[in-house]
Design goal:
By secondary structure, the chain is mostly helical. It has 10 helices and no strands. Helix 1 crosses helix 6 and helix 4 packs antiparallel against helix 10.
């Protein structure tokens, strides 16, 4: 019967961990909608999460669009449907690849830094000092990052989509001979506002998910360098897995 006890203890441990993560998010949202509002802190985090990730998003979007344009051309050419290359690239980026790849890139670049920053503040007892001063660490450390993630991810996804679409045109139009009017003109017939909204909804939820997981892991990081490194690794891995999992859930619901 020992294995049953171990299974029960394992289940209770992770249910408790999930509950604590849920309460962490609820507390962050409550602090986000109650004054005082730290707008300058939010702008600083938008610059860190969004502006400093632009180059990574630009390069990833460009090469993703080029790959889609290259593979899409030869695939559609088999069925005599090369004219649909533009809609294929646009829908693939807007609905799926744009939000997901942007979120994964932001997780690797900004999410890991967020976890390490808060984790170091925990190990050096700076968070404890903030609490002793009578201040709410959520309002200064968590809420600005959460709001910045909600603002930055849709903007970065939009940049990714635009660059990716033009990357597909460079390969399909300039290199392989698909007409500019054909490439962009067919998009108006096949890309609907619902497709754009689907990508926006996904990017908004990914912004919440990334900042939530990374802030949580940093806030409850273990002490010492090992604790911070472990928390950072867990934050990146868990965020990446949850992005893919939540992407499937949202796709199944939105379809």
């Amino acid at each position: 019967m020992n294995w049953i006890n171990q299974l029960g203890a394992f289940t209770i441990f992770y249910i408790e961990r999930m509950g604590r993560m849920g309460l962490f998010l609820v507390k962050a949202f409550l602090c986000a909608v109650t004054p005082p509002f730290k707008s300058s802190w939010v702008l600083k985090q938008v610059w860190f999460i969004g502006s400093q990730s632009t180059l990574v998003i630009f390069l990833t979007g460009a090469f993703s669009g080029m790959v889609l344009g290259l593979h899409g051309f030869y695939t559609l050419n088999r069925f005599g449907s090369v004219a649909l290359l533009g809609p294929m690239v646009a829908l693939s980026l807007i609905k799926e690849l744009g939000p997901v790849l942007s979120a994964l890139m932001v997780t690797g670049r900004a999410g890991s830094a967020i976890t390490a920053e808060i984790g170091i503040m925990r190990t050096t007892e700076q968070i404890d000092a903030i609490e002793l001063m009578g201040l709410n660490p959520f309002r200064y450390l968590i809420v600005p990052k959460l709001i910045a993630g909600i603002i930055a991810l849709p903007l970065l996804t939009a940049i990714f989509n635009v660059v990716g679409i033009f990357g597909g045109y460079i390969i399909g139009g300039k290199l392989l001979g698909v007409g500019e009017g054909t490439y962009f003109g067919e998009m108006t017939a096949y890309v609907k506002i619902q497709d754009v909204l689907e990508g926006i909804y996904k990017s908004l939820s990914f912004g919440i998910l990334i900042t939530w997981v990374c802030c949580y892991k940093g806030y409850y990081a273990g002490y010492g360098a090992e604790g911070v490194s472990k928390a950072t690794t867990q934050a990146v891995v868990l965020s990446s897995v949850l992005i893919l999992f939540w992407d499937y859930i949202m796709t199944s619901l939105l379809f």
